[in-house]
From TrEMBL:
It comes from the Bacteria. Belongs to the peptidase S58 family. SUPFAM superfamilies: DmpA/ArgJ-like. The lineage of its organism: Bacteria, Pseudomonadati, Pseudomonadota, Alphaproteobacteria, Hyphomicrobiales. It comes from Neorhizobium huautlense. This is L-aminopeptidase/D-esterase-like protein.
Length: 325
């Protein structure tokens, strides 16, 4: 396993990155429609087609998820991914046409110093299509790429991270998260990550926990919207209601990696999907899948901050690597 979302068979990831704009788009495209759900626990979310993910809604499957910067302007990105999917014949059959189902979440990165003077129309629809064209099932970049391009946190540059794990029964669980929190992924002013207890190897530095803890609240501003958004996927057979529970357990991982989380000016949103390749034998196996959803989400957030680099603009927020190497 490569410790990436693409460790789940049938999942492809593509990025569109614009360092001058200081923003980007990440597309998560499934080889075939998958059972999906999601949940929103932040107080200032932005999304497209997120209501259909409620377990009580009729449509059970999606073709792709989109994570994007750009705040509300970024919601155009899903249209670009839809265009790519429609061109290859994907989508829910409605009469004589097909409608690709592409829920999206956005994060706020309009104040990071990038050039947002794009004219009449935002660039995000085109960037969504570029992200679709870039999808691949193997390795993909982390840090200041895709939806993590313009991400920031209270202490260091945010970014896009991913992590994966396998249950004792062999089910795979993986997360992809753009960490753009109002709070902090690190403890106090030091290099240690809140997610350190869950780290595998040295995926975000291997520093462990500090000897003392600074739990004072650190925010990147007051009345400044933020948002951490992500996707957690398993190869297990789940119902839509179980996928919804998977997304809630992913939020538990967010709360273990960012302090504070789910604030009134965060829009924290987690999507969840099940590719249904491996049956779940009993409740114990299901519980371990949920447990690992929490851990891979926390690890992915820390990796996103660890891998990030500062934007090439004046006054850009410094990266963890700038200070701690």
């Amino acid at each position: 396993m490569k410790n990436l979302l693409t460790d789940i068979s049938g999942v492809a990831v593509g990025h569109a990155t614009d360092l001058v704009l200081g923003s980007g788009v990440t597309a998560v495209v499934f080889e075939r429609p998958v059972i999906a759900s999601g949940s929103v626990l932040g107080g200032a979310p932005g999304g497209r087609d997120t209501a259909l993910l409620d377990p009580s809604m009729t449509v059970e499957t999606v073709d792709a998820f989109v994570l994007s910067g750009g705040s509300a302007f970024g919601l155009d990105a899903a249209g670009g991914v839809q265009a790519g999917l429609r061109a290859i014949g994907r989508g829910l059959t409605v009469g004589t046409t097909k409608v690709p189902i592409v829920p999206q979440a956005i994060l706020m990165d309009l104040l990071n110093g990038g050039d947002k003077d794009w004219g009449r129309h935002s660039p995000y629809r085109d960037m969504g299509f570029q992200a679709f064209e870039a999808i691949g099932k193997g390795d993909f970049a982390l840090g200041t790429v895709g939806a993590g391009t313009g991400a920031t946190t209270a202490t260091f540059k945010g970014g896009l991270g991913s992590a994966s794990a396998r249950t004792k029964a062999g089910h795979r669980v993986a997360a992809l998260v753009a960490a753009n929190a109002l709070g902090s992924a690190t403890i106090g002013d030091g290099p240690h990550f809140w997610a350190a207890p869950f780290e595998q190897g040295k995926e975000f530095g291997g520093l462990g926990m500090p000897t003392t803890f600074d739990t004072d609240m650190r925010l990147k501003g007051i009345n400044v919207t933020a948002t951490t958004i992500g996707v957690v996927v398993t190869d297990a057979v789940l119902t839509k209601a179980q996928a919804h529970r998977l997304s809630i357990l992913a939020h538990d991982g967010l709360a273990r990696a960012v302090l504070p989380a789910h604030l009134p000016f965060d829009g924290d949103t987690m999507f969840a999907a099940a590719t249904a390749e491996k049956p779940v034998a009993d409740v114990a196996e299901l519980m371990e899948i949920f447990h690992l959803a929490t851990l891979v989400t926390a690890r992915a957030i820390a990796r996103g901050v660890f891998e990030a680099t500062a934007l090439p603009v004046e006054g850009a927020q410094g990266a963890w690597r700038d200070r701690f190497g």
